[in-house]
Amino acid sequence: MSGTVRQQKFSRLIQKELSDIFQRDQRGFLGNAFITIVDVRISPDLGVARVYISMVLVKDKKALLEKLDNHKKEIRKALGERIRNQARIVPELAFFIDNVEENAERMDQLLKNLKIPPSDNQES
Fold first, then answer.
1. Residue 122 domain flag
2. What radius of gyration, in Å, describes the C-alpha atoms of the chain?
3. Rounded (10°) angle between helices 61-70 and 72-83
4. What is the CATH number of the domain that holds 49?
5. Which secondary structure element, helix H or strand E, spans residue 52, and what is its range?
6. For every one of its 124 residues, what pLDDT tens digit does the chain have, with 9 covering 90 and above?
């Protein structure tokens, strides 16, 4: 996490509140998907929040990302209601899929499939 202390505190607040909003999901547009907020990066002026999400139980991640983009105003409004006493600015939200888990799985598979011959120095 980079940025100033102010950005870091604000991003943690946004992450916590968005997680709670997604967990409750009163409108039901997420279906049975389980969304985790992996990281939130805030612009220096606190006007834009880049939200990185991880999705479980989702077959079509891009379609769910589009749903989030379509409901961005509702999510931002709910966020504003939650943070109105703690922040003057409700940032614009931009959602991105976090690919860290998929990349880690792919690297694990690559490492498992490596054929490393034993060295000649090993004692038997």
1. no
2. 20
3. 60
4. 3.30.300.20
5. strand 48-56
6. 567 898 999 999 999 999 998 888 656 777 777 888 999 999 999 999 999 998 877 788 888 889 889 989 999 999 999 998 988 889 999 999 887 766 777 787 888 887 777 777 755 5
Please report whether residue 102 resides in a domain: yes
pTM over 0.90: no
Per the structure, the complete domain to which residue 101 belongs is given by 5-112
CA atoms within 13 A on the CB side of 98: 17
- Does 121 fall in a domain? no
Q: Does a structural domain hold residue 117? A: no
Residue 30 sits at the vertex; the CA angle it makes with 75 and 18, to the nearest 5 degrees, is 35
Say if residues 39 and 84 touch (Cβ distance below 8 Å).
Answer: no
The answer for 3, left when phi > 0, alpha when psi is -120 to 50, beta otherwise, is left
Q: What's the total number of domains in the chain?
A: 1
